[in-house]
Amino acid sequence: MKRVLPFVLLLACSAPAFGQAVDSQGAKQLSDDLAHYFGKKLFDIGFVKISVDGDAYKLAFEFKPVTDLMAKQQAFKFDITPYFMLVKPRKDGHWDVSADVSPKGSIDFGGPEGPQHIDFSVSDNKFTGVYDPDLAAFASATGSMAGMTMTTREPKQQADVTVGPGTAVIASTKSANGGIDFTVTEKITNFAETIKVNDPKSGLSFPAAVKAPELSVDATGKGLRTKPLLDLLAFIVATDDEAKFKANEAEFKSLLTAALPLWERIDGTYGFKDFVVESPVGKFGAKQLNSAVGMDGIAKDGKINYAFKVSGLTMPQQVLPSWSVALLPTDIDLNFGGANIDLDSIAKKTIETLDFRKDPPLPADFGKQISADFLAKTPKVVLGHSTIKNGNIEIAMEGEMTFPGKKPDADVTVDITGYEKIVETLQTAAKTDPQAAQYFTGALAIKGFGKTLPDGRLEWVINTKADGSVTVNGAMLKPADPVGTDDSGEEATP
User: Fold this and answer.
1) What ranges do the domains of the chain cover?
2) For 399-416, what is the mean pLDDT?
């Protein structure tokens, strides 16, 4: 709340005429510009007030009117200290923006398990930036805070979060193909969260703690369509009843189409340094833990990628068989996602078909239509090159899967370095541990399907077809399903 509201409001700022003095007329113009995008009601109820403060405009945010309004409509209430920011027009048509606040507050709402309560406090929170109306974004901005605390209370659990000093940097430039390109970097120190679960019905009752001396966030975006998205927002605000919306359906469709593809590409990564989880079964840890996601916008050949990387992984050994310690992974690099994702055709067909004069505005079978269209473009589930390592043992895998006829067709390659070490460990453990003996037998069977490569690695090329057949390194492991049967092997109903 402390960052999103002012950031979103300032997206709509339109600078006064070049060289215009800061005065009451300019304050009114700025209010009208913001109301164009977010509605006049926010100003009427006193949530936002704009006044002259020296050579700048003061945007004051008072949350009580919004709290009172929402309390009448639903069981949701919040209490946040008021704050303000200063926006100053520059001679180049940009705006200098600054804020120096320490917001505190609480939120109460109902959940599936009962009432939930959140308290939060941010100390010495500062923000400075240069907003560019032509970009509809901050050309540059920096933020910092001295620390933050947050407490959540639910019927069956509670959590306490604290973080130390943090900084953030934002930069935006005009994109070659329209919209903006942006980067966001943020670092937070001394992250700590304690969780206490107490659920008598299930018998769960335990504490846990998560700690990391550093948390970083890095995001990049290309072609984010800020201005068309603001135009769409302004239309929605202006057509605040059903009759207006139906009467202006063509304009809505035009604005929605103009906002496509929303963005060309967005990528983001969360990273924890010296990550530790303390639990009742012991301590888990990692020198570095990263989680990343990247996605194209609404494109004809879109891609989405996920990555999970861990280095220096440690796990509690007291709950594991002693022989398994030598096989536990210390480094994990998993990469997966999708390709050939045609959302462009689906979006345009949906926009074209929409008819707000009908209820519902889309045909009853429309979902089945676009689902069939989506699968006809052969989207892929992709397993990028991924590895799991421990000492001299490395498991590498990659592949892809499609769904012709709604049944999976997959090609996956698995390479293992140090497979003999795995077999030797299991063979030794099998002498005293029946469970290890079962794993040893399985490991020998799997090895029998492997192909030895010139460098000593064992490789398994696994192919599954939509007809149900499975081959490993060209050898048939499972034949095709009999014609006329479903995946369970039972006769299909015509």
Assistant:
1) 395-478
2) 92
